Predict the 3D structure of the following.
Amino acid sequence: ETGVTQTPRHLVMGMTNKKSLKCEQHLGHNAMYWYKQSAKKPLELMFVYSLEERVENNSVPSRFSPECPNSSHLFLHLHTLQPEDSALYLCASSQDLTGDYEQFFGPGTRLTVL
Amino acid sequence: AQTVTQSQPEMSVQEAETVTLSCTYDTSENNYYLFWYKQPPSRQMILVIRQEAYKQQNATENRFSVNFQKAAKSFSLKISDSQLGDTAMYFCAFRPLGYSTLTFGKGTMLLVSP
């Protein structure tokens, strides 16, 4: 285990549902990230948080809403998703955003949108 | 902007043999890091090996080594004495110096068979 946990590990939801993904890191890191991993595509960086402030939003649709209440927790709130949003959602953390720090990844949440 | 290309979607190798995974990248940066990450089925992504662009010596970690050709912007991973536990998706990634954001390739699925 790398100290980054994600819940739930699997999630099936309808297009009208509202759900949230949770990420928690136990490493004392200040930066956290959400990635989307789809088959046969590079990992797509969605959001970056540094010291609980969002510093990067890579043109992600508004149906994805991140929240970082403190430096240890990161949420991704989902509403009115589309089937093409089905993917593995990975959370990662690093000591800081700037500087030469490695990212540590969680196990991911496998999301299926029906 | 940086791009990372992995041209081999899938590779197969038999136990105890050697396999090489390819990665090329494009960047205008002169100083940066390159990484290979391993993502076993249903498990967390972990860092396998890293290379600093300013170092001429190729990085080595036990059975894993890289062939870094800076002028050619090539960064291949060699796995010696392949083991069944090496079966995983392997991602090549790029990070500029002084910043933690990663750019990933599409990945190569490596299957090690008995």
About this structure: The mean pLDDT of chain A is 91. The CA atoms of residues 32 and 49 of chain A lie 5 Å apart. Chain A touches chain B through 26 residues (CB under 8 Å).
